[in-house]
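Lab notebook, bench 4. The sequencing result for the construct came back, and we need a structural model before the next group meeting so we can plan mutations. Quick request posted to the team channel:

Model the 3D structure of this chain.
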Amino acid sequence: MEPQERIETDLMATTVADARDELNLAEFPLCALAHRLRPDQKTLQFEDQVWAAQRGETITRRLTISGSDAYGLPTALDDEVLLGLIQITKLRGFADRKVPFTRYQLIRLLAWRDESKSYERLDASLNRWTGVTLYYDNAWWNKVRRCWVNEKFHVLDNAWLCHRAGRGGSPGREGQDGPLSAFVWNEVLFRSFQAGNLKRLDFDFFRELESAIAKRLYRFLDKRFFHKPRWEFNLKELAWEHIGLARGYDAAGLKRKLRPAIAELERKGYLRPMADAERLRRLGCGEWQAVFEEARGQAATKDCMSDSPRAAQLTVALVGRGVTAPVARRTVARYLPAQIQAQLAVFDWMLARNDPRLARNPPGFLLCAIQGDYAPPREFVRSNAQTKRSQTVMQRQQQAHPPREPRAVRDHAKERENEERIQRAWDSLSPEARRQAEEEALARASRFQLTLIQRGGASGRAARRAVLDAYALKRLRGE
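Done. Here's the predicted structure in token form:
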């Protein structure tokens, strides 16, 4: 695999399995969700009041967003682009403010169409993020100092795009032999990344949401549900200050705008379904309370109950290879069983060969292979064909000379005997001798195996077991 292909594969693996969201950006919106802004409007402002335990008082948090004269204020699509830039930076371990990328990678990550309109939209978005200035008054959480502070900064200090003409004059993809585009984060935002002021984000789920309001509500609630599963908000404060709906809407208008987004999050199993009277409670004249409760696995339980036996087996197979259970269930529901089974076979073959393409993120690579329906490596195809030919010859020989005992039974008995010999060898050692033997076995492990072991999980446990068993067998043979 070429370096550029590896970057693209790793990018998709990371965003599917291990996405991140910056906590300050999840708290307040960076754009208005109104259908239309006045042409002369260049400023947005959001604010609320919270109890600051460090100060022992209630403080007002305020975010002011100022757009440039040329490109204006960010839109909901710009907000998605910004989230995509965070995922590209996560791929590179938040190691440098300057982040190389290709426009095609970012468009594919965001699940946009690979067409001229998408490239133009991406260019415009980067122009806006370079020109926008954010003013946080008591509203930027500094994780190192553990307090709310004032900060004023651009989101991106600069960005440059490498263009290549495609067929028919359309934008081309930056190729393997061409230069990469790049962007540079502002130092304030990048310091927050490096300080770990981040939360996990189900990026697949986020991309599946159709409503911009549902996406914004999901990011805000997902941050809050980390602390407790049920939250109650003042309707106007939630909709105006944290979702970004226009202040021209009264309570009735806000409820009308929020209901479809809430219903979408309920249908997809994120929020516990509630009757409208329970969800939206009247407090007084024009004042309402919005109530949200995390589904906490209710949708997952429902999915498992409706799964066919084969779907359940595939889900278990994916989880056994390091994929999280929710992602495994969605993958099985979305893709053909034969497609998943084929990629599982290739993945196991690559794992047995210590393929370097799995070194960074094995579960993420597996998910990418399923989603992209990757063609199997030539070596796998040849090996598979040889295996089938060998099986055919063996079947013919068995038909001509039936064995006294089925091959599967003999293989199972031999495997069971080896396992028992290995277990007896380990059991015969004293605790100190066993510890020394395990250390010696791990010292002989390959770099790839050590990487899996250090990562932990199902893949790590399987790799450790394989290393110890191989070492024990060698000692039994006197090697």
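Residues 1-10, 165-172, 297-307 have pLDDT under 50 and may be disordered.
Will bring this to the meeting.
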